[in-house]
Amino acid sequence: MTEALRDEPVEAEVTASDLVYEGRVWDVRSDSFRYNGAELVRQYVDHPGASAIVAVDDDERVLLIQQYRHPIRHRDWEIPAGLLDIDGETPLETAQRELVEEADLHADDWQELVSIFTTPGGNDEVVHLFLARGLRPVGEAHAREAEEADIRVEWVPLQDAVTGVLEGRLRNGILSVGVLAAAEKLRRG
């Protein structure tokens, strides 16, 4: 039974779609659509999607970064991630680019972990998570600005990151799913 359990795509008839707000990174849309015999209206963030990386070194430590996030007014712990904002770039290529840009690292081994809907009631964002192994530094550090200018980087034992998630000390959703999925994938071999 559990193998058959999966999210199901639905093609609801969209009768109108209006751009409510056009942003630098994402937009806000208002859609009118027919579903289950009713005419409904929903507003949501129209998001390009993202890729995120769980970078685990040979000592089973995971790379975490901390940076300021204004909507939550926290410097939260995260894993490297970035938007799917370059035409023609695959989620894996985005992950590889972001690992260089945010962590100054290349990885020799890439494995797909999971893809998640971050907030399906409020946006259409899909984040593709990858496990990166065989890490090595890039030749020159990437220049960082804005919120990334004071990124804090820590290598944390993967099991400590799992504990931090389970104890509620690490609350970033992408980090949570990423470290839990990576720990389980590595446990399974």
Commentary on this structure:
The protein has 189 residues and is α+β, with helices and mostly antiparallel strands. It folds into two domains: 9-46, no CATH class; 50-188, Alpha-Beta Complex (Nucleoside Triphosphate Pyrophosphohydrolase), CATH 3.90.79.10. The protein contains three helices and ten strands; from the N terminus they run E-E-E-E-E-E-E-H-E-E-E-H-H. It has helices spanning 91-103, 158-166, 173-188, and strands spanning 13-22, 27-35, 38-46, 50-55, 61-69, 74-78, 81-83, 105-117, 126-137, 152-157. The strands form three sheets. The chain has a four-stranded mixed β-sheet, sandwiched between helices. A hairpin with a 4-residue loop joins strand 5 and strand 6 (74-78). Helix 2 (158-166) crosses helix 3.
